[in-house]
Amino acid sequence: MTEHAAGAARPARAYHWLAAVPALCLLGGIPFANRLEPFVLGLPFLLFWILLWVVLTSAVMGLIYTLDERAARRSGGPDVAS
Amino acid sequence: MSSALAIIGAFLLLSLTLGILARRGRTMNLEQWSVGGRGFGTIFVFLLMAGEIYTTFTFLGGSGWAYGKGAPAFYILCYGAVAYAISYFLLPPIWRYATANHLLSQADFFAAKYTSRGLGVLVSLVSVAAIVPYLVLQLKGLGIILSEASYGEFSPAQAVWISTAALVFYVVVSGVHGSAWTAVVKDVMILGVAAALGLYLPLHYYGGYRAMFVAIEAAHPGFLTLPAHGMSPAWLISTVLLTALGFYMWPHTFASAYTARSEGVFRRNAVIMPLYQLVMLFVLLVGFSAILRVPGLKGANADLALLEVSKATFSPPVVGVIGAAGLLTALVPGSMLLVTAATILAQNVFRSVVPGAADRTVSILAKWLVPVVALLGVWLTLRPGNALVPLLLMGYNMVTQLFPAVLLALPRRPLATRAGAFAGILAGEATVAALSLSGVTLPGLLPGWPALVTDLNIGIVALLVNAVVLAGVTLVTRAPARR
Question: Would the CB atoms of B81 and A6 count as touching at under 8 Å?
């Protein structure tokens, strides 16, 4: 059962709040982005706005993941590579 | 038999074979059957979760809503991204607790965290009730695919019976391992088919994407933006919140978090999954391209849009490949839903009533419950009614009511009391039932209030009631002299 070894909880960090930014921009922007024009990449503006923040969600989560892995390695955390 | 149907049949055989192969050489106890022995890495958990998330709902429901409703269908692109961001923080502690305590189901989590068998049973019943419309959605989808691809040979009702029989057989021979392997085939298929259709159809029929949207806007002004009333921005935002919070509250997604080998799996998935969400864009493009090509599909028939536009464009063998992708998008989640519902009823409900039952008895009962639940699903599927998207939203209304109690259970010691969790869930579900069964709408209940309030999704209203009751009862029932 060693492969199931559960690590301890990781500490909460201030940069974790970054994860809320894409969701707030995506949803908070809907009333303002609710328009047809300008077309971007051939898409109506509302559709483009949503896609933009979906892609940026991935980017922001990647940033948080990288920072977390770096912090875990520095403190010799249990869940670095698995 | 049409060649389309023959191709779909071949894919069905392939997935059955994969299911049987995946099972060989393993003794299947309940843990093996339902959580895959907790040995899945990033790719498999990713595929399993994607397998559950990208369902018939995406393929037929998503394109059907783009066809029938326009911009409100964009909500389908949003909620996954919000949910994945939440999952980064939500799933690791759930996985740690579940693995340390050998939990099998979502209800086990509640029962263990709140040390209350009764709460486990309540959650079981709620989650099975929420699974039913979701299962009906998959069966309806299977029925649509088979009857469309048979070019009239099978009526939708016959198609539902045939596909349900295949689904039950598939589940009984393979359990969760079959789902994971078929998910590999399915994901390659749906990615390929959705991308090909979404990229090709607008170019083929309109010469470009912008040209297609301009043509739609000319024919249906305002179709590509949210209306001021009804499915307004307030509706979209509240629906996205409801579905994002409920995303991992489904018993099968919650429990598929248990199949992971380590918690790092979830963190990596949270980074990749939002991009996978982009598949939905292609599906929406297919629905939009169908609007001016195969007009006149009204109400629930809008769900036929993808297959109808495919039939109008391609020869039967190509329609067969598209139908096969659709078949897999229903088979994988359908099998997970059936396994989950059967396991919950056997393990969490039966075992709570008969505490001394042997593991073997529970295991056998779980397998026998699969066809029983499937029959209930068929019965509901054959009743006339809903389109695919409203069915999913109905399930979400129920399942999201579990979120506050899960969130407050994450610390070592739950922040809510047992009575608080119980009362909150009951209040939330009662609100959902009262608002949906009575047919009362918020604009009718609150005449003259702004659209910002009256367009809110009723599930979010119920969630607020839930949270207030949970907090109130927790404050009253918390022992005053605790430490």
Answer: no
Strands (E), B100-199: none
Least trusted range by pLDDT, from A3-7, A62-66, B290-294, B377-381? A3-7
* CB of A77 closer than 8 Å to CB of A68: no
Q: Which tokens sit at B266?
A: 């979830």
pTM > 0.80: yes or no: yes
φ and ψ at residue A43, rounded to 5 degrees = -105, 150
pLDDT at position B464? 92
B99 touches chain A (CB under 8 A): yes
pLDDT digits (tens, 9 = 90+) for B73-111: 999 889 888 999 998 999 888 988 988 888 878 888 998
Q: Where are the domains of chain A?
A: 16-73
DSSP-based three-state secondary structure for B385? coil
Q: Cβ separation of A60 and B85 shorter than 8 Å?
A: yes
Contact call for residues B325 and B63 (beta carbons, < 8 A): no
Question: What is the token pair recorded at B442?
Answer: 């918020």
B244 neighbourhood in chain A, CB within 8 Å: 23
Q: Which fold has domain B3-390?
A: Sodium/glucose cotransporter (1.20.1730)
B300 and B385 in contact (C-beta within 8 Å)?
Answer: yes
Residue B401 has pLDDT above 80, yes or no: yes
* Tokens linked to B377: 């699903």
On whether any CB of chain A is under 8 Å from the CB of B189, the answer is: no
B440: phi then psi, degrees, rounded to nearest 5: -70, 135
- Please report where in the chains the tokens 């259709």 appear, as a residue: B197
For residues B280 and B60, the answer to whether their CB atoms sit within 8 Å is: no
pLDDT in tens, B137-159: 888 888 888 888 888 788 878 88
Q: Which candidate in B38, B75, B88 is best for mutational testing of the A interface (most A CBs within 10 A)? A: B88
Of A42, A50, A64, the CB nearest to B88: A64
Q: Name the percent of chain B lying above pLDDT 90.
A: 14
Residues in chain A, how many? 82
**CA distance to partner chain A, nearest, from residue B137 (Å):** 26
Do the chains contact at A65 and B225, CB–CB below 8 Å? Answer: no
**For the residues B172-178, what does the mean pLDDT come to?**
64
Question: Mean pLDDT, chain B, as a whole number?
Answer: 82
Interface membership of B226 toward A (CB under 8 Å): yes
